[in-house]
Write a structure and sequence with these properties.
CATH topology of the largest domain in chain B: Cytochrome C Oxidase, Chain A
Structural class of chain A: mainly alpha
Radius of gyration of chain A: 18 Å
Number of strands of chain A: 0
Largest interface: A-B, 39 and 62 residues
Structural class of chain B: mainly alpha
Number of helices of chain B: 32
Distance between the termini of chain B: 90 Å
Helix content of chain A: over 70%
Oligomer: heterodimer
Strand content of chain B: under 5%
Helix content of chain B: 55-70%
Distance between the termini of chain A: 60 Å
């Protein structure tokens, strides 16, 4: 069934990302970097707009 | 006017006027859409409310309601949010203000407003979540192209490898909806029936999964850190769930058509994907709720964040509910019921709208020069929350009641009557929701102009982001950046693959199935039937009447053989429907007379006193007796539904006991070949009862009669109900004929062919018995006996001779209604062995005939004495206990 293939494929792809995350702790901070950068951006906008 | 942010290197404008324009448009449109929704709700208990105005009829209003919420409210609210969010996500402006205003004009004045005007004036497309007509669909695609230029291009200019998750959701929603929309809205116009349903089924779910969901989740991930001043729990997990959503969501669509003729593999695939999606949502919600840990105080005091929090909870609940109802045993019970309507409101209000409100209010509050009334926002939250909770609980319960009743052998109208208390409660809930949106208007139109105070948390603990600079440029990061791009390509490929798996491939299978199973020599649709198809679509009949009998035991028992793929090959587009308020119509052919159908369209309550179907007086010229061409075409179309199967399938008899429940459980479906195609021989309604039993049955019968028969036969059974004037032959005056139990049993079980008397075999046997007892009690001779002078022997002989010469050709020599000419007559001639007309009634018939039947008036051929003799003679043929 094609759906099974897709679901299995997705699961393996996600498992690969999880594997990278587990076995390479240094990369975790890269994965998480966008959330920090985003928050900085939100604050910068707010600060400048209110000034 | 534009406010500006002075970044280190450039000015990044926030498009305040576009935020304001889309925000105000969202408010106007949600109020109209909710008002329409409430009107629809009120029509459930006051079906004649605004019933004479075609553009305010139930079916057309529902089109406006769903599309208004989808495009008018959610679309504008999300667009307003994007103008606030995208510059903050990419640190650069959106593409162009001109594109922005073009998008605003196209979205509102080429899509929503004309869409409303068109569907309410009868120009629509009978596809769920695709109700606006094709001309509007063209502008929807154009709008998504403009959206992509306006919002997606800045993401690519910035680079997407380390983009924050909200940006991914915005991009994904725009791009994948732009691709899915044409497939779901254009293809079913070109591919008919079951094959087209595979495509429209995909869009039904993509509308939620690729449009509402990603945009809503983008808001959730944006507002939480913005308000709490803390980053989300895990960006890694948010990206993982993002890709899982876009990989798997497109595979869900076919779960709307379970137990259909679409290949079972595709159906099961959709079920598997639905469960998988539930797991994805659990992960996503876990991440979102962990992002709110320790922020309970902010949730309690910040209304936009509170809307976001409730949206997250709704997202979890509604997704798990969705996964559950795709399971076949659950689906069998709740599909087509109000449970699904509750689910849809839960998703569109509880999840999508609450997220949209959270995003809109946050953007509004944070944008210079816009008013924000915190007190009104709080009112909006509570009114909407209470309204939603009441509505979802109420519709879920109603759905379970309906599902149970549909599985029973009770008549369909019982489920309508049993739903009334729930529908009243739903209207109350709808009023609260409307009031909640009214409070939302106050929030955004009143109150002070300016920014809220910075949160205490932000003041005391300034945020210091980790730099991660030690990783930049490493080979692992380069690999990961490539992996993100590869994942994007894989997502796009998966999306295309979903169309192959759930639409293209099932279409190929269906094509070969249809070619192998389609009988030859079936008539094509007439021009009138084709026009009737269009009338059915335009009036929104599919909102209440499905057109496919599922391969479930209960469906087949109630409606007839399951719908086969080849039967649907004339439907451009298919109108299977996803809801039943009225019964399924796939087997309507041959069930009702044309007069019944026309009277039913003129005023449904004339023939079905408890019906809540809207009347369609605009299809007539002022009277049920004067149908316009549209009404005739619609009835012709209804009569064609299931006709091919009737003509092609030989009658098969069997009993439902032959079905192996274990086999059914194993397959998730069953072969309906053992289900009888006909209700079988009429039951014998023995009325040999004691006086007290008879009294009880008559009492029960009176109530059953009032519910089902009074519209035609009148409350006293004198054939003078409101529908009587437009039915030919007219309903019988039941007080002027004595009926045998056999005659009553047959008429109730099989109906009276050639008249408007339908079969009532779906009623419980005890109700049929009660009806028979009551009808017998209506006999005026029984209640007030009058002297009918018996015929002398000579008169009998003369009467017999007259009968033989003038009547036996149709009624048979012995009066059984089996004369040589009877076979060609419809309705069949009266069987005087089982019906004894009172002499005065018989005389009346002989003088005037029975309009609408083959019985002519005899006043010109027989003199008064002869007619008197005949009237007396036919009464002597009656044998109440025999045959």
């Amino acid at each position: 069934m094609v759906v099974n293939l897709i679901v299995s494929g997705v699961t393996m792809l996600m498992a690969a990302f999880v594997g990278v995350w587990i076995f390479n702790p240094r990369l975790r901070s890269w994965f998480e970097m966008p959330k920090h950068r985003f928050l900085e951006e939100v604050r910068r906008f707010r600060r400048v707009e209110r000034d | 006017m534009t406010s500006a942010v002075d970044s280190d290197t450039e000015l990044v404008p926030t498009e305040r006027e576009l935020i304001r324009a889309h925000g105000l448009a969202a408010l106007a449109m949600v109020v109209y859409s909710a008002l329409v929704g409430l009107t629809i709700g009120l029509k459930f208990h006051w079906p004649d409310f605004l019933g004479d105005v075609p553009w305010l009829t139930w079916g057309r209003l529902r089109f406006s309601h769903t599309q208004g919420i989808f495009f008018g409210w959610l679309g504008n609210a999300f667009l307003a949010f994007f103008y606030f969010a995208v510059p903050r996500l990419v640190a650069r402006p959106v593409t162009s203000r001109k594109v922005g205003w073009s998008l605003f004009v196209v979205w509102n004045f080429f899509v929503v407003v004309p869409g409303w005007v068109l569907v309410q004036n009868g120009v629509s497309q009978p596809l769920e979540w695709g109700e606006f007509p094709i001309i509007v669909d063209v502008f929807v695609v154009l709008a998504f192209l403009l959206m992509a230029i306006q919002f997606v291009v800045p993401f690519f200019r910035r680079g997407v490898a380390d983009l924050y998750v909200s940006g991914w959701y915005i991009m994904g929603g725009i791009v994948f909806t732009m691709l899915a929309y044409p497939v779901g809205n254009f293809v079913p116009e070109l591919v008919p029936g079951a094959r087209g349903a595979t495509y429209s089924g995909l869009w039904i779910h993509d509308a939620v999964g690729l449009y509402a969901t990603p945009f809503a989740v983008s808001v959730l991930y944006f507002v939480i850190p913005s308000v709490t001043g803390r980053p989300i729990y895990s960006h890694f997990l948010s990206m993982l769930t993002f890709w899982m959503l876009f990989f798997v969501y497109p595979l869900n669509g076919t779960h709307h058509f379970l137990f259909s003729s679409i290949p079972m593999e595709a159906q099961l695939g959709a079920v598997v994907a639905s469960i998988y999606l539930g797991m994805d949502v659990v992960l996503n919600v876990t991440n979102l709720l962990l992002s709110l840990r320790g922020a309970g105080d902010r949730v309690a005091h910040d209304v936009p964040l509170r809307f976001v929090w409730l949206s997250i909870l709704s997202y979890l609940a509604v997704s798990l509910q969705g996964s559950m109802q795709s399971l076949m045993p659950v689906n069998r019970l709740v599909h087509f019921t109000d449970w699904v309507i509750g689910h849809a409101h839960f998703a569109m209000i509880g999840f999508a709208s609450f997220a949209a409100i959270g995003g809109l209010l946050y953007a509004w509050r944070e944008t210079a020069g816009l008013r924000y009334n915190a007190r009104a926002a709080n009112w909006a939250f509570w009114l909407l929350s209470v309204g939603l909770a009441l509505m979802v609980a109420d519709l879920t319960a109603a759905g379970l009641v309906q599902g149970q009743l549909w599985q029973s052998e009770l008549p369909w109208i019982d489920s309508v009557s049993a739903s009334q208390p729930y529908w009243i409660s739903r209207s109350l809930a709808g009023s609260l929701v409307l009031a909640g949106f009214g409070a939302l208007c106050l929030t955004m139109l009143t109150g002070p102009v300016g920014y809220p105070a910075t949160s205490p948390a932000e003041q005391v603990s300034p945020y210091l982001a980790p730099t991660g600079s030690d990783l930049h440029g490493s080979s692992a990061i380069r690999w990961l950046k490539s992996a993100y791009v590869l994942t994007g390509i894989a997502g796009f490929g998966c999306f295309l693959l979903s169309f192959f798996a759930l639409a293209v491939w099932p279409n190929l299978t269906l094509e070969s199935d249809i070619a192998a199973s389609r009988p030859n020599g079936l008539p094509a649709m007439t021009a009138s039937e084709v026009r009737g198809h269009a009338v059915y679509a335009r009036e929104g009949c599919l909102n209440c009447h499905s057109q496919f009998v599922r391969t479930t035991l209960d469906d087949v028992r109630r409606f007839g053989p399951a719908t086969l793929a080849w039967e649907t090959e004339k439907d451009y587009p298919q109108m299977w429907g996803t809801r039943r308020i009225g019964p399924d119509l796939a087997r309507e052919s041959g069930k009702r007379s044309r007069d019944w159908q026309l009277t039913h369209l003129w005023n449904p309550r004339w023939v079905v006193p408890e019906s809540i179907m809207p009347a369609h007086p605009w299809l007539f010229d002022g009277s049920a007796l004067k149908p316009k061409q549209d009404a005739l075409d619609l009835v012709a179309y209804l009569e064609s539904l299931g006709r091919d199967a009737r003509l092609a399938t030989p009658l098969q008899r069997g009993t439902s006991r032959e079905i192996d429940p274990a086999e059914e459980r194993r397959m998730g479906t069953f072969c309906d070949c053992a289900i009888p195609r006909t209700p079988g021989p009429a039951v014998l309604l023995s009325l040999d009862l004691s006086a007290s039993e008879l009294q009880r049955f008559e009492l029960r019968g009176a109530s059953v009669f009032a519910r089902h028969c009074g519209g035609c036969h009148g409350s006293d059974g004198k054939g003078d109900g409101p529908a009587a004037a437009s039915l030919f032959p007219a309903p019988r005056d039941l007080s002027r004929t004595e009926f045998s139990a056999v005659a009553l049993g047959r008429a109730l079980w099989e109906g009276v062919g050639g008249s408007s008397m339908p079969a009532w075999h779906e009623l419980p046997v005890n109700d049929l018995r009660a009806l028979a007892a009551y009808v017998r009690s209506l006999d005026s001779q029984r209640n007030h006996p009058t002297e009918e002078v018996p015929l002398s022997r000579d008169e009998l002989t003369s009467g017999e001779k007259l009968f033989s010469v003038n009547c036996s050709m149709c009624h048979g020599q012995t009066g059984r209604g089996d004369g040589t000419g009877a076979g060609a007559l419809y309705p069949k001639p009266t069987n005087f062995r089982q019906e004894r007309p009172h002499r005065d009634y018989a005389l009346e018939v002989l003088e005037r005939g029975v309009p609408g039947t083959a019985m002519p008036p005899w006043r010109d051929k027989l003199d008064a004495a002869q007619r008197h003799l005949l009237a007396g003679y036919v009464g002597t043929l009656y044998q109440s206990q025999s045959e």
